[in-house]
Amino acid sequence: MNTVADFDPWSPSFTADPYPVYASLRERGRAHWFEPARQWLIPHYDDVSALLRDRRLGRTYLHRFSHEEFGRTAPSAAHGPFHTLNGSGLLDLEGEDHTRIRRLVAKAFTPRTVERLVPTIRRLAEELVDDLVARGGGDLIAAVAEPLPVAVIAEMLGIPESDRGLLRPWSADICGMFELNPSEETARRAVSASLEFTAYLRDLIVERRRSPGEDLVSALIAAHDAEDRLTEQEMISTCVLLLNAGHEATVNSTGNGWLTLFHHPEQLARLRAAPEALLAPAIEELLRYDTPLQMFERWVLEDIEVGGTVIPRGSEVALLFGSANRDPARFERPDELDLSRADNPHITFGAGIHYCLGAPLARLELAASFGTLLRRAPRLRLAAEPEWTGFVIRGLRELRVEV
């Protein structure tokens, strides 16, 4: 059993640059027990990729075991609204429920459906970037990275424009619970946001029943009403997941990506010189180099073995995406940023049945925002070094830029 003294996800210095610690973990073994979170850390690409696809693991265990049977304590009743909301969403469902809901939601993310959004995404990106340029700069997160994906996913769901300012604060409070060992204050905020978000969506569902539209909420209502294929809670949880997952990663990919470019001026100069040729591989490389989701957890439903270490049923594994994406066994010169990297099977969007449904949409949004900034703010530069926030969902509090 390995000890992991230098893995400290609550340390600002570790969060700012976890990659040297990941390299040490990879050198020292394939599975490491981390006592503070009572998890097994898995740092190698091949293991992370395989375990994402291994059905002996799951995002939940409740489709097969009770809390008691699995050797776990039920969550606090005070946190119930969060767990009700989270537990009925696509991300945390397994088995037939996951298959049923994913099939319904996947219809909203077909290549044809996503392609229809391209003009809207480009228009929004241009408007946001033009505003940033007109002001001479500002916080790139608040000005461009955040409003673009929020507007797109809200448009898909039919959230009125006047209500969209509510979404990111609710999302941020809920996502706080995905960090390691969240505090009671974090839990309180997540519960409050869960209750408010749920109440808002119940009202929206009532409105859409009265007056259906072409949006995803109306489509989910139709699926529920016609064939009873969705409960109302599943509908609400699915909408919340799409709103949260539909922008959190894209916001942080934008901020992290631009900071990476600012810190690699020679690569930024290459991209500016040939944006048409380099933009698509550059986005994939930025997603690999500094992934916004550093870790993804799984419950062990049956005993497994990783590198000679038996990990028993009832354990939790922490799949270290950030480490896997820098594994020299899979990527040549992994700590080097290469915007033209051709062989780049990063796992930033996951793998297996929980592979990110919104990956094509995220790529479109990133291409639109990066491409527009390259064209309309050709001298964009960093104004101040930013502060990192979070570890599991890792991003920047703000990114001050000048044009």
Description:
52% of the residues lie in helices and 9% in strands. The chain has 403 residues and is of the alpha+beta class. It has one domain (12-402): Cytochrome P450 (Cytochrome p450), CATH 1.10.630.10. The strands form four sheets. A five-stranded mixed β-sheet has the order 1-2-8-5-3. It is globular and about 60 Å long. The mean pLDDT is 92.
Explain briefly what this protein structure is.
The protein has 403 residues and is an alpha+beta fold. It is 52% helix and 9% strand.
Biggest sheet strand line-up: 1-2-8-5-3
CATH topology (fold) name? Cytochrome p450
Mean pLDDT: 92
- Helix/strand-derived category reads alpha+beta
- CATH H-level superfamily: Cytochrome P450
Which second-level CATH architecture applies?
Orthogonal Bundle
Largest sheet: 5 strands, mixed
Counting H and I runs of at least 4 residues, what is the number of helices? 17
Topology order in helix (H) and strand (E) letters: HHEEHEHHHHEHHHHHHHHEEEEHHEEEE
User: Which spans of ≥5 residues are poorly predicted at pLDDT below 50?
Assistant: none
Percent of residues in β-strands: 5-15%
Radius of gyration, Cα only, in angstroms? 21 Å
Q: Which overall shape is indicated by the principal axes computed on the Cα atoms?
A: globular
Distance between the amino and carboxyl termini: 51 Å
Report the strand count: 12
**In total, how many domains does the architecture comprise?**
1
CATH class: Mainly Alpha
